[in-house]
Amino acid sequence: MSGPVQLVARTGADVAERLARSAAAAEGAHTATTEVPGWLDLHRHLSGTVVRRIPFSGLDHWSFAPDTGNLRHSSGRFFTVEGLHVSGPGTEWEQPIIVQPEIGILGILAKEFDGVLHFLMQAKMEPGNPNLVQLSPTVQATRSNYTKAHGGTAVKYLEHFLAPRREQVLTDVLQSEHGAWFFRKRNRNMIVEADGDVPVHDGFCWLTLGQILRLLRLDNIVNMDARTVLASAPALHDETKALSSDAGLLAWFTGERARHDVRARRMPLRDIAGWRTDAHCVSRTDGRFFRVVAVSVEGAGREVAGWTQPIIEPVERGVAGFACRFFDGVPHLLAHARVEGGFLDTVELAPTVQCVPSNYAPGHRPPFLEVLLNASPDRVLYSTVHSEEGGRFLNAESRYLIVETDEATTPAQPPPGYQWVTPGQLNWLAGHSRYVNVQARTLLAVLGPALRGEGAP
Q1: Predicted local confidence at residue 455, as pLDDT
Q2: Which sign, positive or negative, has the C-alpha torsion 233, 237, 241, 243?
Q3: C or N: which end of the chain has fewer Cβ atoms within 10 Å?
Q4: Do 370 and 457 touch, CB atoms closer than 8 A?
Q5: Residue 40 belongs to what H/E stretch?
Q6: Does 246-263+318-451 carry CATH code 3.90.79.40?
Q7: Gap between the Cα atoms of 288 and 96, Å rounded
């Protein structure tokens, strides 16, 4: 006969409390925060990695399909670059898009030292990172990578994330990636607590959440994949009231999704309008937004020492920022219900502003962009440059901002498509799939220290 039924707590309050204790730990039991940038520099130097731009003809095992013009790998794995047609009331466009249907793993291994959770972070090289090596999750791998489709070595620590016991899982949620460049791409964002001793391989180190949060004040140190995993974890919030109830917020957001009748379909890359392909890139005829180029990676120090691949390169640094106001002492962020062609559900919650300014003519720039860019320094709660996903995007950086605003610039009754949300509400939604986009998750990861006015180390 089976034993007595045992109930467990429905909420993750205990997890949030443990994470909060780790966030309060400015230093850890193993590595000093100030040592991390130098440690990353050392691994950058030791890897000797060289990334070179090459013509498409220099790609190894990649080619344009004769029937569609799609860029594809000879193995049929990894990803393809195809065309996308997006249409809706008053809008229509075509563009290249990365299609990578497999679900990858972004996993951070956690373990208590001296009663405080520490996280096993990796000095990982990605060819698109401006500085090549950044602080990354313990495991950051597509299915093609960890099933060794590239013929390389095994992914370290992968076994902790493939079939963990439920009581070891601190957070586990499927999250979208950049909807402007990926077609319905999702990754499994996980934090798993280790059971037993964990050997620390070269290129890995244990850090508290507090240490990682301090490093998030520095440009291009913590990579996108680590930021999205941390933002997906539960956090403690002492809010009891907000401008909108949780039910009201969900009703508004569901309405936004319902009113955007946007349709996206894949199409042959060679047929997309307004784009041209030459020996070195696929680009818009007006030079705006982004281009598809090819690179060679040598001396990578990864599962495979070298390879070639297509990669997306934006034309300029972007801006992603939240306007922030305090209503009756409660912080609120102005979220935007943003349409992107690659989203599975058309709309996700995005920062107040998310754009590359040079893509827009004067007089046609996105709402609130000037408010964030022209804010006085005493109003800027957070301002740091972070790069986007370095495995698929080349030198894709954004200035991430949190700016305190007022009624004159961001009214309590926002325009259509915008809604004030509290940090707790945004964190609650980020614990579920396809509600909060990757740029908003980066800002959510840094929000607590920014609102407390904590500076860089």
Answers
A1: 54
A2: negative
A3: N
A4: no
A5: helix 36-47
A6: yes
A7: 13
